[in-house]
Model the fold of this input.
Amino acid sequence: MGMLTVISWLVSTVLVAAVDLQSSGDSYTPRSCNSPIYCDGPLLKTVQLAQLYPDSKTFVDMPTKNPEDQVMQAFNALGQNPSVDAIQSFVNANFLDAGYELEPFNFTVEPLTWLDRVDDIIYREWLEDVHEFWTELAFNFNTAKLCDGCVSSTLPVKNPFIVPGGRFREFYYWDSFFVIQGLLLGDIDDMARNMIENFLDFVDTYGFMPNGARIYYLNRSQPPFLTQMVKLYFEKTNDVDFLKKALPVLDKEYVFWLDNTTVTIRKNGERYRLNHYNVHNESPRPESYVDDYNTVVNGTHFSLLEQVSLFSDLATGAETGWDYSSRWSKIKDYSPDLLRTLDTRSIVPVELNALLWSMETTLADWHDTYGTEDRRKTKRQGEYYRKQASQRLHAMDVLLWDEAQASFFDFNLTSVEKNSEYTPANLFPFWLGAVPERVLRSKPTLEKVFDLTYDTLAKYPGILTTSTHNTTQQWDFPNGWPPLQYVALQAMFNVDEWLGDTKFAPLAQVLAERNVATTFCSWYSTGGSLPGVLNQLPNTTDSGHIFEKFDVLSLDSAGSGGEYTVQVGFGWTNGVIIWMFDMFTNLTAPNCNSTTTYPLPPL
Ligand SMILES: *[C@@H]1O[C@H](CO)[C@@H](O)[C@H](O)[C@H]1NC(C)=O
Ligand SMILES: *[C@@H]1O[C@H](CO)[C@@H](O)[C@H](O)[C@H]1NC(C)=O
Ligand SMILES: *[C@@H]1O[C@H](CO)[C@@H](O)[C@H](O)[C@H]1NC(C)=O
Ligand SMILES: *[C@@H]1O[C@H](CO)[C@@H](O)[C@H](O)[C@H]1NC(C)=O
Ligand SMILES: *[C@@H]1O[C@H](CO)[C@@H](O)[C@H](O)[C@H]1NC(C)=O
Ligand SMILES: *[C@@H]1O[C@H](CO)[C@@H](O)[C@H](O)[C@H]1NC(C)=O
Ligand SMILES: *[C@@H]1O[C@H](CO)[C@@H](O)[C@H](O)[C@H]1NC(C)=O
Ligand SMILES: *[C@@H]1O[C@H](CO)[C@@H](O)[C@H](O)[C@H]1NC(C)=O
Ligand SMILES: *[C@@H]1O[C@H](CO)[C@@H](O)[C@H](O)[C@H]1NC(C)=O
Done:
């Protein structure tokens, strides 16, 4: 095909398919945040800048005590420049506690059926506890508790759900994939299905999957994991009816990513299409109001246009799920100005394109097998997704793949070059299979795929670091995050399978040992105990915390930095732990003293 043909083919398939997919569901009308209390406007600004609470998220999670119009009237009656005391009295008189409408969802779980496979007695008992933690993280929204005309920032849902924990009092998009993985391994299939149904309802209602279940998350999404969730559920249950119901909704989500986040890249006379995260926003994120205000407005000299651009890059950074990271900033090392140089929309991230490729190939297969009764339409949809996948893989190969380093890298739209930063996000294609045939068939290349990962793991005693830059941002060194360990391990399993070998099994074993030990030891050092098996440390007062992230410089501490204090709970950490015990049955609980190390095997 000549280049012109390629372009017109691309344009026509995109248009044909968009029309085709849209006509299969409701009309496509993404909705955004528009409440005068929880989204934007003088009330939000006045209350948030008064800093009544240490975390801006507290106020926007408080439902009103009075009908919305009365609240607005009471606010207007405060006049210009009210004192902090007057603002506090206004909030006390008109708002309920944050999370008031959240109701624990009471359920019990059966013991894990495969618990006996875990050899180590301490780990076995601890795993049972982790499995039972789901019962403490399950909630419903009960807005019926509120008065007539009262409002809250929660988005209505039909089913109960699991929250991450801590300040995260609602469910989140990409977190939930790892939660669902843990639920399914624990045979809590109903809850997994409940959660997926809530997501499908959201896509149906809002035209895309918001970042989380709050109105202030309606301006952005998060890494597209919904197809992966449906896949996990379907692989476990074989529920064809469920899949058939989900399929048109997944089509709809795909249209959102295509319409809102596609970029065209011209390089060496060719045009390619890939995706970046892309949120337009003109105001501070309501749940991080003070932070964003201080980043963008307070003490800066940005023009209005520059402010809008930075508000957009901040919201886009939150859409990536990596809020925040040197991946998205021009300054790559510690600086109080780092966030002011956010450049998120200039980056074409590896994992987003790997996830979309997986969506394309998976939806192609599902349309072929489980599409509508109209065979011609079904065939057309299958072919459409396959073409989308193959042009994406070609673009990833040309633009993101580095043959010498046997790695994918993010691509920068401004420099029109890939960068050379190692992060575990580079491994997503090896988890999801978004790897060119040529690479799949090359033993020498596949054998080099984890060289950078190995070097990084060799430097520190803990889990895989998020980046190599110490910026004090959450998604940078020295923090390591459980979902990224999951991706790295899945990638190792796949590459071994493609090699027909067990080359990376020992490395995978050590990474799993480190991840489980880190989670276990930080739980133990914050007071965790197991009756009859493990006594509580004498100097502790809490009863053990499961953290959202970890410090890669040790085997027993929670990570730090970023926008909020480290969270305990924690949904995705639990899910990943349960999965690791399922994959590796002979992990051994350490003493959690400084002598415990997990040296890497030779490669
Ligand atoms: C959400 O988007 C709307 C429409 O673009 C905009 O007016 C509003 O300021 C945005 N709100 C937030 C919280 O990002
Ligand atoms: C704005 O910046 C000043 C100076 O750094 C600081 O004292 C003030 O607290 C900031 N305002 C807010 C709302 O954080
Ligand atoms: C759930 O259990 C709690 C504590 O036992 C109880 O207070 C609450 O009423 C129960 N909720 C429902 C919906 O049954
Ligand atoms: C997606 O793009 C449409 C059209 O530009 C826009 O109206 C909508 O707000 C965008 N949605 C999100 C969540 O950014
Ligand atoms: C993208 O490339 C431009 C031009 O080289 C550079 O100034 C910018 O810092 C890069 N962005 C990121 C996030 O690395
Ligand atoms: C990271 O940088 C911060 C700020 O400069 C510093 O306090 C901290 O010790 C550094 N951490 C590591 C692990 O080097
Ligand atoms: C308790 O003591 C142990 C060693 O004696 C120490 O490693 C740990 O950090 C202490 N924990 C707390 C919460 O102070
Ligand atoms: C655990 O099992 C793996 C393979 O299943 C094996 O390679 C490893 O040596 C075992 N480790 C221990 C401590 O038994
Ligand atoms: C630390 O743990 C090792 C075994 O993992 C044990 O041999 C050693 O005695 C422990 N050291 C201390 C100080 O508790």
